[in-house]
Fold this sequence. Notes:
The protein is of the alpha/beta class. It folds into two domains: about 5-60, Arc Repressor Mutant, subunit A (Orthogonal Bundle); about 80-265, 3-Layer(aba) Sandwich (Rossmann fold), CATH 3.40.50. Helix content is about 40%, strand content about 25%. The chain has helices spanning about 5-15, 20-30, 35-45, 70-75, 80-90, 105-115, 125-135, 160-165, 190-200, 240-250, and strands at about 20, 50, 55-60, 95-100, 120-125, 140-145, 145-150, 155, 170-175, 180, 185, 205-210, 220, 230-235, 250-255, 265. The chain has an eight-stranded mixed sheet, sandwiched between helices. Strand 15 (about 250-255) and strand 16 (about 265) form a beta hairpin. Helix 5 (about 80-90) crosses helix 6 (about 105-115) and helix 6 (about 105-115) runs parallel beside helix 7 (about 125-135). The longest helix has 15 residues, at about 5-15. The N and C termini lie far apart (about 60 Å). Residues about 60-70 have low confidence and may be disordered.
Amino acid sequence: xxxxxxxxxxxxxxxxxxxxxxxxxxxxxxxxxxxxxxxxxxxxxxxxxxxxxxxxxxxxxxxxxxxxxxxxxxxxxxxxxxxxxxxxxxxxxxxxxxxxxxxxxxxxxxxxxxxxxxxxxxxxxxxxxxxxxxxxxxxxxxxxxxxxxxxxxxxxxxxxxxxxxxxxxxxxxxxxxxxxxxxxxxxxxxxxxxxxxxxxxxxxxxxxxxxxxxxxxxxxxxxxxxxxxxxxxxxxxxxxxxxxxxxxxxxxxxxxxxxxxxxxxxx
Length: 267
């Protein structure tokens, strides 16, 4: 297959699927991952694709696409996620017990916790979060076992849910696929949402980490009610109706400033 034919195949795949991995595209085309990287240069230069960690996604992929593999989401809204994680870190005072889900925003928070906190007890079902928190051995990390979900790099299913139901944490940090402040959070990845519902019942306070692109989005399954969320940490001040809905539900809103700025509190 010629380079132009490969690029057309990749373009067609991204149009339909929204994202792809170097290894997956290489296997489909019978070439090396390095060849795929070279083929993508023209698509990226033309603004038709965006490189991510381990792969590529279509530029301006629609928000209604179902959950993609986690590695394809690592580079999306990266600066916003880092700012949200930095703001969320301010909530970790003293030595509370924590839960972190397998979201890319919680992964950014895990990196900060590994570098800037010590001596915490942290529960997670994410393999990547475990690895990040394990750097330096400064925390006691409990992993929830279960069936390995390759899309989220997390453990899910009945064993993970049973383990979560036996634990109580002070602070739970979770993210979401979509968030309607009048309705709650939504997920497309079915294996993960029941675990979040259990954690919401077992924690002292639940903190939702959601960048502005999650607001106004509805996905396949309703997961959490607004009243179950103690605090929302986001990167842009929500619209006035959303702020009103969150205030009615008793939910505080923290707005993370850009990297060089200062964070603010929305009331």
